[in-house]
Amino acid sequence: MLRLPPFDYFAPRTVAEAVSLLAERGSEAMIVAGGTDLYPNMKRRQFEPKTLVGLRGIAELKRMEGDAERGLTIGAGVTLTQVSRHPMITEKYPALAHAAGVVSTAQLRNMGTIGGNLCVDTRCNYYNQSYHWRKSIGFCMKKDGDICLVAPGSSRCWAVSSSDTAPVMIALGASVRLVGPKGERVIPAQALYHDDGMEYLTKAPNEILTEIILPPAEGLRTAYLKLRRRGSFDFPILGVAVALRLDDGVCTYAKIVLGAVHSYPVEALQALSRLVGQKLTPDVIEAAAQAAARPAKPLDNTDMLLSYRKKMVPVYVARALRQAAGLQAVNEY
């Protein structure tokens, strides 16, 4: 049986108190909300904090304010279940509701938070194993070793982004608020991520993601599709988020973001010129889907063959575009 290492646990009641604890405890401290990713990683000794600062008791992190016309603010402590079932989100931001609703299992969605999923650790077949398994192969660069076992000649870690909601937030043009000892800052959701499997967040360890700010929906059409081996529980091995605006069938705005194909969510910028100003005919959608697949660089460090995952990118982009535009075929999903 894998057991948690010993640690001190603090339960602050305000963000300010939590920030103060993080500053006081320094590098030995980590924050925890739902704990659905952190605690298993601690059992495998991928994280070994001496102090945990719990965020579940902070009421201000559990608020949702605003509406689709003015924009919606979601507290980072709102659970994934609440996001997936909120009437306004399901109606006006359906891709976000769907992405939150396909994270792991129902029990873990009741515990896991939207902020936690945005900051969830990157994953790799050589990293997400028990301590003794990792020790038997000499560990990896991400924890305790000095070589990336996926790409041994590389100077960086290639663990992949594993968040379902991050690609959607980027596609929606959301921002996040970070609060730390030096004050607070608001950054675009895209700017929260680094292209590095180890240092994958721009958020400092002593900063807390407190809320997500969604812009007005303004007729935005959205979709999120997830590829995984099992229809529940599994992390994504491909996630595709799409946001569109259509005017009389002509695309006036488009954004496509790919998850789980790199160490951070990747915007498929080359595909946008194939969509904007065009009617979404089958040929236009296929051309955009093929262009969107180019930045996808799956490696042999998650489930299924990398060649299969690469081939699925244009397939899922095309499906997501059809779904967002209301053109999907019967039984396609």
Provide an overview of this structure.
The protein is an alpha+beta fold and 333 residues long. Among the domains are: 60-119 and 160-214, Uridine Diphospho-n-acetylenolpyruvylglucosamine Reductase, domain 3; 221-325, Enolase-like, domain 1, CATH 3.30.390. It is built from twelve helices and twelve strands. The protein has helices at 15-25, 38-43, 80-85, 87-92, 94-101, 106-111, 114-118, 131-136, 165-172, 272-275, 282-292, 306-325, and strands spanning 8-10, 29-32, 51-54, 64-67, 71-75, 175-180, 183-188, 208-214, 221-227, 238-247, 250-259, 266-267. Strands 4-5-8-6-7 form a five-stranded antiparallel β-sheet. Strands 9-10-11-12 form a four-stranded antiparallel β-sheet, sandwiched between helices. It has a three-stranded parallel β-sheet with strand order 1-3-2, covered by helices on one side. Strand 10 and strand 11 form a beta hairpin. Helix 11 crosses helix 12 (306-325). The chain is globular, with a radius of gyration of 20 Å. The two termini are 39 Å apart. The mean pLDDT is 96.
